[in-house]
Amino acid sequence: MTYWITLLAVETGKQGGLFDLDATLPLVAIQFLILVLILNATFYKPLGTAIDQRNDYVRKNQLDAQERLAKAEQMAKQYEQELAAARKRSQTIVAEAQADAQKIAAEKMAEAQREAQAQREQASQEIEQQKQAAMASLQQQVDALSRQILEKLLGAESMAQR
């Protein structure tokens, strides 16, 4: 091919102006087309294929990322709903526990009051029994002293009558 290029260049050895239309113009056009074909085959097609593959890869990753983001948002909403439900359940459990604790405390207080009342009643009964025993003892002592006084008085009268 270089032979033909040289031959054409030698045959057209005429001196020309700026825009000479001789055999070099078609020769340059043919060289340009050959260069375009070679570049297209060796550079542009592989480069275009690589760019297309890269675009497909980016597009696929972007779609995957959007799907994952949508799934993550959905899971976040679900977790928030579950968390709200769990909070409600825990508040209900805490309220029930507080009510139970208040009920138990009220029962213990009532039981303690009943026990205190029972102890007061028992103490009152014991005091009453001790009072009655003391009164009975005093009554016996009064009776004994009254007899002694009567005996002394009557004994003095009976001695005086004698």
DSSP strand count? 0
Report the total helices: 2
- The count of domains is 1
Oligomer: single chain
Helix fraction by DSSP (H/I, runs of at least 4)? over 70%
Question: What does this molecule look like?
Answer:
With 162 residues, the chain is an all-alpha fold. The chain has one domain. 91% of the residues lie in helices and 0% in strands. The chain is built from two helices and no strands. It has helices at 2-11, 24-161. The longest helix has 138 residues, at 24-161. It is rod-shaped and about 195 Å long. The termini are far apart. The mean pLDDT is 86.
Outline of the structure:
This protein has 162 residues and is mainly alpha-helical.
Task: Produce the secondary structure layout.
Elements: H1 2-11, H2 24-161
Give a quick set of tags describing it.
mainly alpha; rod-shaped; 162 residues
